[in-house]
Amino acid sequence: MKVAKLLGAVGALVLLACTPVRADGSSWTGLYLGAHAGYGWGNWDADLSHSSGAIHYNDPFNQANQSLGVSDNWLGGFQAGYNHQFGSLIIGLEADVSWTGMDAHGQFTTPAPIHTTWDIDTSLDVFGTVRAKVGHTVSDNLLVYVTGGFAWGRVDARQATNWYAPAPPAEGGRTSGDVNHFGWALGAGAEWAISPNVSIQGQYLYVDLGKENYALNGTQKPNNNVPYTETFATDLDFHTVRIGVNYRFGG
User: Fold this and answer.
1) Dihedrals phi, psi of 69, to nearest 5 degrees
2) Whole-prediction pTM value?
3) End-to-end CA distance of the chain
């Protein structure tokens, strides 16, 4: 729902702003605010080989390291930044935040006689970046640039353990929690000034949020709902493409 509203907001801004007025002679220097919408896809790997909090400590998983299979999905959010122009050279700083529908699911199993399954569901609720920009003005209206810097993300994770021996299925436990990831982003983009103050940009970003250790709290069903913690590690990286509209205060 959040992403759908943001997509609508970006569309409305484009319709309101798209009066082609040349920005000849105007400067890219100044603050800007804007909104964006786009698409994301990537990799989400989990490592259960050292699950010190597991009901079966160090379960001999059939495949302890595997991809959770990220679902491609829409994203949308807002950005703000500052550019300074030195002739045809543009140097700037941009920060953004995006809400996403990207999620992933994976199932890990153990061999006989344990016959345990671990189901892990994760969703990247929100992520953001703070990046430097270095660009070149191809013309008065067109700016191309490269960008890179810090990235962060918040993941909602859920884990369920089920036993299939001696009688299937028996609920082993349920845990959940929010985990913060930190990493870096690198990409490139182009921005077209459609008026002295309004521009449209297209941008590609590769975001690597690195590996984080998850510690999810929950209860063990077989042991009278005794509280416990499941621990495992995940590694998240993904690609995004997006378009946005900026209002430049220094145009």
Assistant:
1) 70, 80
2) 0.83
3) 34
pLDDT tens column, 171-190:
778 899 999 999 999 999 99
Question: Which residues on neighbouring strands pair with residue 99, listed in sequence order?
Answer: 76, 126
Question: Residue 126 belongs to what domain range?
Answer: 2-248
For the chain, count helices (H), then strands (E): 1, 10
- For 16, the enclosing helix (H) or strand (E) is helix 2-17
Q: Are 235 and 191 in contact (CB under 8 A)?
A: no
Q: Which residues pair with 130 in a beta bridge?
A: 95, 150
**pLDDT tens string 68-121:** 877 789 999 999 999 999 999 999 999 999 999 999 998 888 877 767 888 899
CA 33 – CA 4 distance, rounded (Å): 20
Domain count, the chain: 1
* CA atoms 112, 113, 118, 119: torsion sign: positive
152, 166 Cβ separation under 8 angstroms: no
CA-to-CA distance for 84 and 249, rounded, in angstroms?
12
Which phi and psi (to 5°) does residue 236 adopt?
Answer: -130, 125
Task: Assign residue 9 the CATH number of its domain.
Answer: 2.40.160.20
d(CA 242, CA 186): 14
Query: Cβ–Cβ contacts within 10 Å for residue 25, how many?
Result: 7
- A 10 A CB-CB count for 81 gives 20
3-state class of 101 per DSSP? coil
